[in-house]
Amino acid sequence: MKYCSEQGCRQLISKGRYCDKHRRKKRNIGASNKPFYSTEAWRDLKSECYQRDKGRCTRCNKFVFGKTAQHHHIIPINVRPDLKLDADNVTTLCPKCHMIVENETKSNTKYKFNW
Predict the structure, then answer these.
(1) Which of its termini does the chain have fewer beta carbons within 10 Å around, N or C?
(2) What domains appear along the chain, each with residue ranges and CATH number?
């Protein structure tokens, strides 16, 4: 038995680092679209976009080999579900640029005010 790792908590625990009150919850990010990304139609579209973009990141123009290539929906699926299998709405990105583009799109929508 040991104490919970949360500062000031005196709860004794038998395994892990935190007690039930302080244990971090798992977040299911993108879980609503997960079944879509395992379909044959999505795999075919990714392959088509990879060939169209000649295996290069459309942001930095770096060659991205095979499975490291990531594909990004320009207009997110939750905004326009009808465009999820539209090749013009999907672009090939390297992992570094994909993270940058995802953060840019999230920050643009996060603080949208209608004054």
Answers:
(1) C
(2) 41-110 (3.40.1800)
